[in-house]
Write a structure and sequence with these properties.
The complex is a heterodimer of chains A (742) and B (226). Chain A has 3 domains: 1-60 and 199-379, Phosphoribosyl-aminoimidazole Synthetase, Chain A, domain 2 (Alpha-Beta Complex); 69-198 and 448-464 and 480-514 and 532-554, PurM-like, N-terminal domain (60s Ribosomal Protein L30, Chain: A); 390-422 and 570-739, Phosphoribosyl-aminoimidazole Synthetase, Chain A, domain 2 (Alpha-Beta Complex), CATH 3.90.650.10. The longest helix of chain A has 21 residues, at 144-164. Chain A is of the alpha+beta class and 742 residues long. Chain A is built from 25 helices and 28 strands. Chain B has 226 residues and is an alpha/beta fold. Chain B has one domain: Class I glutamine amidotransferase (GATase) domain (Rossmann fold, 3-Layer(aba) Sandwich). Chain B is built from 5 helices and 11 strands. In chain B, β3, α2 (69-77) and β4 form a beta-alpha-beta unit. The longest helix of chain B is centred in the C-terminal third of the chain and has 16 residues, at 210-225. In chain B, 54% of the residues are buried. Classes of the chains: A alpha+beta (742), B alpha/beta (226). The A-B interface holds A 155, 158-159, 162-165, 247-250, 252-253, 342-343, 425, 429-440, 451, 453, 566-567 and B 9-10, 12-13, 15-16, 19-20, 23, 49-51, 53-56, 109-113, 139, 141, 143, 195, 197-198, 201, 203-205.
């Protein structure tokens, strides 16, 4: 197929504007990078590679705020996924990625291919994926379309992960009207590897082969990267052609074949990279750039699912389950043999060439001849305007909202039915959480915990994001996201190692939104430094808007922690009657952005108050030490719904109860959401020493009973309720709302 | 006793079965590829869970045409233990080694959770370490686990004591007669939807599946000594 337009026609008709390349960028490419008019194929490649999704041109200045190194980090951002040393020659590899736009348009395939994409990032590093997590943010379940989207998103995640045989062990699901027109679907994958097997996405060595492996290339997902870099409106919300279709069976074969090659024949391999966003062009150009090489590809050799695809379509297709390899010359047939065994194609489509040019042939003609760096390194960073939103300036002046709680039992029952708090087991039961038999703690706890077979070690992992706090105070909200993740990991008895993130925001050309991005990343970065948890991988998803209305800024933190002895993992529900119950951390009147405020007022408002990050980190470290020493019999971190909800959750699925003296706390404070708090239980004989160690930061509030009642005296009220009553409303809320036909 | 764990394209509980036998039971176990045509030297064969051939067409429908299948059928015919869990059970019904079929769950959803089971027959080579009518709990993890057979077949299964496990309390998938696991008439081929291999270690919270493997291995020991 010939070029659809001549270079002159492109200059005149400006099709690139529809592909999200700006006038200024086009001019810069023309005058500074090429010194000539780019042809149709080249213009397409530039528009994909210069999209925010591939180049981070807008977010880069902000991303530089993150720390991404420490003594444990073996690979930071820039590769398929980050890698962290966990001792014994082993490493944990993880990354999260957003698939928000595809999931909003076509929830089933969008979510499924989100899982597929992140898994390839993990095994392209040479690691075997051992667990998946997700972070899902939906609109309200009162909307019939949203109920269908929830069901299909969950089915998509389940079908892909279940078929791959990778357990989904943790995650979060929240509901807020701000996600009604733009769902957030973030998927995280965690892999385990021997450090000697670490791979790079690199192509080098003149004459070496560029090999294409996996599924054939079709017309699906063309311009997915630019699709992800523009916001929604009613006209484009059915852009289904930009959504890819997943085949998890193909990916399972690809996983086994790639790991077979990496583990047993790494001497044949120079580099390997997933074909993710912007398909062949991004993987090949990035590999060539990494190896400082030139590259020549013959697109006629690319396995194709349909006839008459243009060079542009072949290069930009985001067909799933494909990988690009750089293989040492002379070993092409050897590699082909491995992939043959798994029933997969492996085809040499090009070679590494001298120089630094990126050259493509199609139908016997040269269709692209540009410097590699023009696609990868020369992208113009964009300066963004910033403006502090009026809502925050106003909130700073106002007196904070204070809830009136007349009947705390009623309030607790109501809170437990809020979809963000209610039991999610009807959703996560659709995920295989046990396959590969390493899951010590599955979904429904603070963090998922896996043992590392053959060692005493374990890994705890969690995803956390709370857009409401970030919306009301981006900097403090960013800190809270990190503290919440750390609290979940520590509550399981693990030491936080590092994080990955998905930065989900609205349109960054809006100065208020860019300000939110900047402030919240600053908050996260400060907290990462405090906790020594560098950002080792992640992604940015901007333009999450519908009809001009942005989502709450929702940075998601995916954290992994290391447990020294997995046999001593700390459960999140109470164990023994007679154990003393402690509240760790200071409780204030923090209601701005709380679940309580949303429930009682229908909206969120106010200013989320700053807190002492360093102090929180100090007592969390002490708490972890006490856990490792066996002081703690159970622990649960406080999040949505505060102390009241946490106490109830610690009793669910047990036969126990709690008798508490909370006379220092008001009924409202039972539902305050001050960050960095835990409820822990301690055996009575260890209580004195525990109190001594955590002096000032732990308050004894009562003890575990045999009665299956939650009973608490408050300063201004009383809480008295049977646990089964609480559990019933908590369990039934989501299944009931999902089945509703209203 | 030497046990083969067959690996089909798309098997993904092969590791679970292998590790249950190897790390926990210290049994002599080996992976065998679907390409192989022989199971010579093996005393028992196990078909793991997963999604062989992506469950495309029908769960287990393509796996039954692999090279290894005649060897598995020959082992069944020779009276040696043949065990299939989840996708393995589906393959055994597709291959005709067990009667009936596994349909999509009534809920039309994949379900992963622990379910209570009743051990109905504790006299098979796979279950002799359990008590008759004993209540155990094992994980299920499947989308197509609703057991179906015609009335005549169901009556025959009941009469011949071929129903080995039944769902107790709740029926999670719509299986007829609450069937969770059955044997062939001779009793040497067992297929079940629950995953005993996932319930063999206290660390992972459940050991109710351990005795299934111990039954088989104990049986093998007794045979070897005789």
């Amino acid at each position: 197929m010939r070029q659809a337009m001549t270079p002159e026609e492109i200059k005149e008709k400006k099709p690139y504007l529809d592909w999200s390349l700006t006038e200024a960028e086009y001019d810069y490419i023309r005058t500074h990078l090429l010194g000539r008019l780019p042809n149709y194929t080249e213009t397409g490649l530039f528009s994909a590679m210069w999209s925010e999704h591939c180049s981070y041109k807008k977010s880069k200045p902000v991303l530089r705020l993150f720390p991404n190194k420490n003594e444990r980090v073996l690979q930071g951002p820039g590769e398929g996924a980050g890698v962290v040393d966990i001792g014994d020659g082993q490493a944990v590899v993880f990354k999260a990625e957003s698939h928000n736009h595809p999931t909003t348009v076509e929830p089933y395939q969008g979510a499924a291919t989100g899982v597929g994409g992140i898994l390839r990032d993990i095994f392209s590093m040479g690691a075997r994926p051992i667990a998946s997590l997700d972070s899902l943010h939906f609109g309200e379940l009162t909307d019939q379309t949203m109920r269908m989207k929830v069901a299909n998103t969950v089915r998509g995640i389940g079908d892909y992960g279940n078929c791959m045989g990778i357990p989904t062990v943790a995650g979060e699901t929240t509901f807020d009207p701000c996600y009604q027109g733009n769902i957030l679907c973030n998927a995280m994958s965690v892999g385990l590897m021997d450090q000697k097997d670490i791979q790079q996405g690199r192509a080098a060595g003149i004459g070496n082969a560029v090999m294409y492996v996996g599924a054939k290339t079709g017309r699906d997902g063309i311009h997915g990267a630019t699709f992800a870099s523009a916001d929604f409106n009613d006209e484009n919300n059915t852009q289904r052609s930009a959504v890819q279709v997943g085949d998890p069976f193909m990916e399972k074969l690809l996983l086994e074949a790639c790991l077979d090659l990496i583990k047993n024949h790494s001497e044949w391999l120079v580099g390997i990279q997933d074909m993710g966003a912007a398909g062949i062009v991004s993987s090949s150009a990035e590999m060539a750039s990494e190896g400082a090489s030139g590259m020549e590809l013959n697109l006629d050799l690319v396995p194709q699912r349909e006839p008459h695809m243009s060079a542009y379509e072949i290069m930009l297709s985001e067909s799933q389950e494909r990988m690009l390899l750089c293989v040492k010359k002379g070993h092409e047939e050897d590699v082909k043999g491995i992939f043959d065994f798994y029933g997969l194609e492996a085809v040499t489509i090009g070679r590494i060439t001298p120089g630094h040019d990126y050259v493509l042939f199609h139908d016997g003609e040269e269709v692209c001849h540009i410097p590699v760096s023009s696609l990868t390194d020369d992208v113009l960073e964009e300066e963004s305007l910033e403006k502090k939103p009026d809502r925050i300036i106003q909130a700073e002046q106002q007196t904070p909202w204070y809830p009136q709680i007349v009947n705390p039992t009623r309030t607790l029952l109501d809170l437990l039915q809020q979809p963000t708090i209610a039991d999610k087991s009807s959703l996560y039961q659709q995920y295989d959480s046990q396959v590969r038999t390493n899951t010590v703690v599955g979904p429904g706890s603070d963090a998922g915990v896996l043992r590392i077979r053959g060692t005493r070690k374990g890994l705890a992992m969690t995803t956390d994001g709370n857009g409401r706090f970030v919306y009301l105070n981006p900097e403090v909200g960013g800190q809270i996201a990190l503290v919440e993740a750390a609290a979940n990991v520590i509550a399981s008895g693990a030491e936080p190692l590092a994080i990955t993130d998905c930065l989900n925001y609205g349109d960054p050309t809006d100065p208020e939104i860019f300000w939110e991005l900047h402030q919240s990343v600053q908050g996260m970065a400060d907290a990462c430094r405090e906790f020594n948890t560098p950002v080792i991988s992640g992604n940015v998803s901007l333009y999450n808007e519908n009809n001009g209305r942005a989502i709450h800024p929702t940075p998601m933190v995916g954290m992994v922690g290391l447990i020294k002895n997995v046999a001593h993992v700390i459960p999140s529900f109470v164990q023994h009657p007679g154990d003393k119950v402690y509240l760790v951390g200071n409780t204030r009147d923090d209601y701005a952005g709380s679940e309580l405020q949303k429930m009682l007022t229908g909206d969120i408002s106010g200013l989320v108050q700053p807190f002492d990050l360093h102090h929180v980190h100090e007592y969390m470290q002490k708490l972890l030490l006490l856990m490792e020493k066996g002081f703690i019999t159970s622990a649960h971190d406080l999040s949505e719904g505060g102390l009241g909800v946490a106490l109830a959750e610690m009793l669910f699925k047990t036969k126990r109860g709690l008798e508490l003296n909370l006379s220092d706390y008001t009924a409202a404070q039972l539902f305050s959401e001050t960050p960095g708090r835990f409820v822990v239980t301690v055996a009575p004989e260890k209580a004195i020493e525990f109190e001594r160690q955590l002096a000032g930061d732990a308050t004894m509030i009562g003890e575990v009973t045999n009665s299956h009642w939650l009973m608490a005296k408050l300063a201004d009220n009383e809480l008295n309720v049977r646990v089964d009553k609480l559990q019933k409303v908590w369990e039934e809320a989501i299944p009931c709302q999902l089945k509703s036909r209203d | 006793m030497r046990i083969a764990v067959v690996v089909f394209p798309g098997s993904n509980c092969d590791v679970d079965l292998y590790e249950a036998l190897h790390s926990v039971c210290h049994a002599d176990v080996e992976y065998v590829s679907h390409y192989q045509k022989s199971l010579d030297g093996f005393d028992a064969v196990m078909l793991p869970g997963g999604f062989s051939y992506g469950d495309y067409l029908r769960a287990g429908a393509i796996a039954r045409f692999t090279n290894i299948m005649p060897a598995i059928i020959a082992m069944a015919d020779a009276g040696k233990p043949v065990f299939g869990t989840c996708n393995g059970f589906q393959i055994l019904t597709e291959a005709g080694l067990l009667p009936g079929a596994l349909k999509p769950n009534d809920s039309q959803q994949f379900i992963c959770k622990n379910v209570p089971l009743e051990v109905v027959n504790s006299e098979t080579v796979f279950t002799n370490q359990y008590q008759k009518h004993e209540r155990i709990s094992l994980p299920i993890a499947h989308a197509d686990g609703s057991y179906y057979a015609d009335e005549q077949t169901l009556n025959r299964l009941e009469r011949n004591n071929q129903i080995v496990f039944r769902y107790a309390e709740e029926n999670p998938n719509g299986s007829l007669h609450n069937i969770a696991g059955i044997t062939n008439e001779r009793g040497n081929v067992l297929g079940m939807m629950p995953h005993p291999e996932r319930a063999v270690e206290l660390l992972l919270g459940n050991t109710d599946g351990l005795r299934l493997f111990e039954s088989l291995l104990e049986n093998g020991r007794v045979k070897a000594e005789a």
